[in-house]
């Protein structure tokens, strides 16, 4: 009966969710928990491949998988299809897994920890009377927005299916970013059908929140004070970064090109533009070419992450002669060890899609941003970066909806030519990292949670002895 408490963590099968949920698991393992980390079979295999030959997972963590209901060749970037498939198959498979684990001697699960986008897992844990916690891998502001859906409907801002009644700016508190009702994250998830599915998914997850014993968010009080004031039950555990526990980041879907770190070693301090757009962003050929030519026009060293599926026309995607012309100062790779890249002294700024993980990683390293959001909550994150924290600039599109090469060059020069961006970024870095140090708010939240899990384990053990 004396074994470490056992928790089950389930992530939404998407890159931006797997990384923070796995990092949260690593933190729990370091504090004395045994963790069963549940992923979709498809993503599980991709992660195992990216981890080949690397000892990046704490020994108390077991990686397991259940099917997501899609065939291996189907496009998981079709969010609507993926979400529907998850709901149809994964709940039954997770129920089987929990029953199998709980049927073994001294393996019983003391707590189910679910990605906020997998709220059905909390409902399942509640039925089985298991401890339960939710982790929001996005900003606290996005949780405030999701929690406000009933009020937004009552106030005539959105219809009951989530579509805006009219475009208007909403601000929940003076120190929160203003949000355009047409840019609420479910309204930027894809076509109308995908928006509807994403909205219904969000409504279901908000209901599940009420069943959780703990609500966690990958953020900090200092970054989002107003959001945490509006939702006092939401507790910060961020930033969830491997460097904070002196470990290596795991959970990537593509093998990392670690050679880029050697290339960065050869560059001058504070000189390199780092360009990365996460795992979902897709460019059309014209915009991709403008981005490439914009980086060339900057005449500065750059490290650019170009995923295999980043552009619609994947064949010969670069402008003619581009690779030869930038060979001495530009490096293109398929995937980067991003947390290590951003902590490298040669990085000057981060041209980013503003996913919340990338935002946390840039902020935690004191890096100014150039913001190029793609969809869902990335527009909200851009508002934080540019308007609230003032550590970056965004791009303006021309009348054809294109960010031109000249615009890219101008904004790079502005953000690197104004030392105030770097000064504010370094100030924000110090505030953010103080939260994860001993005695910091995020550190305390994690330690208190593990104490609670240990008590749940003792209650389970006593219940077994009584019977």
Structure characterization notes:
The protein is 43% helix and 14% strand. By secondary structure, it is an alpha/beta fold. The strands form 3 sheets. Strands 3-2-1-4-5-8-9 form a 7-stranded parallel beta sheet, sandwiched between helices. Strands 12-11-10-13-14-15 form a 6-stranded parallel beta sheet, with helices on both faces. The chain has a two-stranded antiparallel sheet with strand order 6-7. It is globular, with a radius of gyration of 22 Å.
In short:
This protein has 467 residues and is of the alpha/beta class. The protein is 43% helix and 14% strand. α8 links the parallel β8 (214-217) and β9 (234-236).
List the helices and strands and how they pair.
Blueprint: E1 6-10, H1 15-30, E2 34-40, H2 41-50, E3 61-66, H3 79-102, E4 109-115, H4 119-127, E5 131-136, H5 140-147, H6 149-154, E6 169-170, E7 179-180, H7 192-209, E8 214-217, H8 225-230, E9 234-236, H9 259-265, E10 272-276, H10 285-298, E11 302-305, H11 322-325, E12 330-333, H12 338-342, E13 347-352, H13 356-364, E14 369-371, H14 378-388, E15 392-394, H15 405-417, H16 419-434, H17 441-466
Parallel strand pairs: 1-2, 1-4, 2-3, 4-5, 5-8, 8-9, 10-11, 10-13, 11-12, 13-14, 14-15
Antiparallel strand pairs: 6-7
**Main beta sheet, described?**
7 strands, parallel
| Beta-strand percentage range | 5-15%
Residue share in helix: 40-55%
Number of strands: 15
Whole-Å distance between the termini?
A: 14 Å
Radius of gyration over all CA atoms, rounded: 22 Å
User: Largest beta sheet: what is the strand line-up?
Assistant: 3-2-1-4-5-8-9
Give me the number of helical elements.
17
Shape verdict? globular
Summing up helix and strand content along with how strands pair, one would put the structural category as alpha/beta
Mean pLDDT, all residues:
92
Organism: Melia azedarach (Chinaberry tree)
Protein name: UDP-glycosyltransferase
């Amino acid at each position: 009966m004396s074994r470490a408490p056992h928790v089950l963590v389930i992530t939404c099968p998407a890159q931006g969710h797997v990384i923070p949920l796995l990092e949260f698991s690593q933190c729990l393992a370091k504090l004395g928990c045994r963790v069963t980390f549940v992923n979709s079979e498809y993503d599980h295999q991709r992660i195992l491949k990216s981890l080949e030959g690397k000892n990046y997972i704490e020994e108390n963590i077991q990686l397991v998988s259940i099917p997501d209901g899609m065939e291996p060749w189907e496009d998981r970037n079709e969010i609507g299809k993926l979400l529907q498939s998850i709901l149809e198959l994964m709940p039954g498979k997770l129920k089987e897994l929990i029953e199998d684990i709980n049927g073994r001697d001294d393996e019983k699960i003391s707590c189910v920890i679910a990605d906020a986008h997998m709220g059905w897992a909390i409902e399942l844990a509640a039925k089985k009377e298991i401890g339960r916690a939710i982790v929001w891998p996005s900003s606290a502001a996005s949780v405030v927005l999701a929690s406000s859906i009933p009020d937004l409907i009552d106030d005539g801002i959105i219809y009951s299916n989530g579509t805006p009644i009219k475009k208007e700016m909403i601000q929940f508190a003076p120190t929160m970013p203003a949000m355009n009702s047409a840019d609420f994250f479910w309204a930027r998830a894809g076509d109308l059908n995908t928006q509807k599915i994403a909205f219904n998914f969000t409504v279901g997850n908000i209901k599940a929140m009420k069943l959780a014993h703990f609500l966690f968010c990958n953020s900090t009080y200092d970054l989002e004070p107003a959001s945490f004031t509006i939702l006092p039950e939401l507790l910060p555990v961020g930033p969830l970064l491997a460097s904070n526990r002196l470990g290596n980041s795991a959970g990537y879907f593509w093998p990392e090109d670690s050679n880029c770190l050697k290339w960065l070693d050869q560059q001058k301090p504070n000189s390199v533009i780092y360009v990365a757009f996460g795992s979902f962003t897709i460019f059309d050929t014209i915009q991709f070419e403008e981005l490439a030519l914009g980086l060339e026009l900057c005449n500065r060293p750059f490290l650019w992450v170009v995923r295999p599926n980043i552009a619609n026309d994947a064949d010969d995607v670069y402008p003619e002669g581009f690779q030869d012309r930038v060979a001495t100062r530009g490096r293109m790779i398929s995937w980067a060890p991003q947390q290590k890249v951003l902590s490298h002294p040669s990085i000057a700024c981060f041209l980013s899609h503003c996913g919340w993980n990338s935002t946390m990683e840039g902020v935690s390293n004191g890096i100014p941003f150039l913001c190029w959001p793609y969809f869902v909550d990335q527009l909200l994150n851009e508002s934080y970066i540019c308007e609230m924290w003032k550590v970056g600039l965004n791009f303006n599109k021309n009348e054809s909806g294109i960010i031109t090469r000249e615009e890219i060059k101008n904004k790079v020069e502005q953000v690197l030519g104004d030392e105030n961006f770097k000064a504010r970024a370094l100030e924000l870095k110090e505030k953010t990292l103080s939260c994860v140090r001993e005695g910091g708010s995020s550190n305390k939240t994690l330690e208190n949670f593990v104490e609670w899990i240990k008590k749940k384990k003792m209650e389970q053990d006593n219940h077994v002895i009584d019977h």
